[in-house]
Structure formats: structure tokens, C-alpha cells
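Annotated sample (chain length 120).
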Amino acid sequence: QVQLVESGGGLVQPGGSLRLSCAASGSIFSIHTLGWYRQAPGKQRELVASITSGGSTNYADSVKGRFTISRDNGKNMVYLEMNSLKPEDTAVYYCNAKRMVVHVGVKDYWGQGTQVTVSS
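Output written by the structure step:
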């Protein structure tokens, strides 16, 4: 099992910045990818950014150049630094971990979600 605890959400004005944090605990030895997803009202959950155990990153086109994902392996933490925030970024943000399970494949774990609201 993998447990994920998020923090850092809140209300910010357009153009502002916010940093989300996620702490991973439990069976972390086989985690392949850590990432952030978001879901706005009436929309499907979408990938925002991810980072593999090897350090490779992937970003949604809508956040490239504005968001940065990073990790601290020693503390088992993953972060999402969000800059130049837009109202379109308003959503519930979820921390995600993908764990490799032998003879099964990839298993997903999710945090509880944290609300990010961008409004003037």
C-alpha cells in the first residue's frame, strides 16, 4: 500500500503562484511514477505533470512553461510549483503514484485532493 498526503492548495489571484506538496509513505520501493492530476467541475480528470523514478518529466500542453514538478527522494516528497496562474487552472488537484506490481502491472494510488482556485 502507498499513502499520499497533499497540502498547499488555496485561493490566489490571476498571475499569482502556489506550491503543492505531496508526501508518500508505505510501500514506496516499487513506485515508478509520481504525478499531479486535476479535475474541474464538469470535466474529466487530466494529467498535469509527472516525474519518473529516473527523473523524466511530462507536462500537459496547457501548463508547459508555467508549472514545474520536482521530487525529493530522501524525504519521499513530490512538489508542483505553479506560476502565472490562470482562472482556467481552477480545479481539485490530486497527487498520484504509479506502483509496479509483479504479474499484475501498474497500480494507481491517489491523494485526497486539494482545491486550487484562481480568481480576482
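Annotation: The radius of gyration is 14 Å.
Annotation: Residues 43 and 61 are 17 Å apart (CA to CA).
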